[in-house]
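Weekly puzzle thread! Below is a chain. First person to post its structure in token form gets bragging rights.
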Amino acid sequence: MTIRAVVWDVDDTLFDYTGADRAAMREHLVTEGLVDGPTSVAEALERWRVATEFHWARFSAGEVSFEGQRLDRVRLFLDRELTDAEAEDWFQRYKAHYETAWALFPDVLPVLDALATTHRHAVLSNSSLTVQDRKLRALGVYDRFEAVLCAAELGVSKPEAGAFLAACEALELPPHEVAYVGDHPEIDWRGAADAGLLSVWIDRHGGHTPGEALAGRHRIASLAELPALLGADTRFGAPSTFR
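Winning reply:
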């Protein structure tokens, strides 16, 4: 089997979303006067994580718009009624801190360079084009990808097969010639494999232990392992520790 293209998740795969989100929220909470001491910060960060995961799941299920989930996250986190304008103003103040913390993981540019001449590249994200286009441009990697597809515009989100197949269609390749790289064991790893792609789980922290090793799924600890896994003609990369 020849893999001709790699489709990438963005947040916590290419871009350190968790690191940027936590750093930004910590700064925002201090600026807003909402925390007092390390314990209060830790509790607030956990509340923000829970609010984000809950309303992101609602968006992924089609229960709320992309913009709506952002406002609902703020309301749940603050535990009070806010108008849309009030919630949006609060979120924009947080967002200003968030954008100053944007960064790629250190293994991203080396692997994109290593695979630049051997594989085609695209993005598939459960976010929106408005968000991810701007982010990829700010991070200096937008031009690395032939296509950027996002759930908000596609009308279907990962782990639904239709999302992964839309990426394959954009590349005009069958699923078995496409690899998908993402950080979530269910949304990315299982979803891509079920859609017929070569599925690669980037498990940077080793925090999950899959119950079984299944055909078409691979687990790596660093993107440095990816070229060898794809059989790329490059000296970059390391033998897989998880595959």
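Puzzle host: Confirmed. Bonus trivia for everyone else. DSSP finds ten helices and six strands in the chain.
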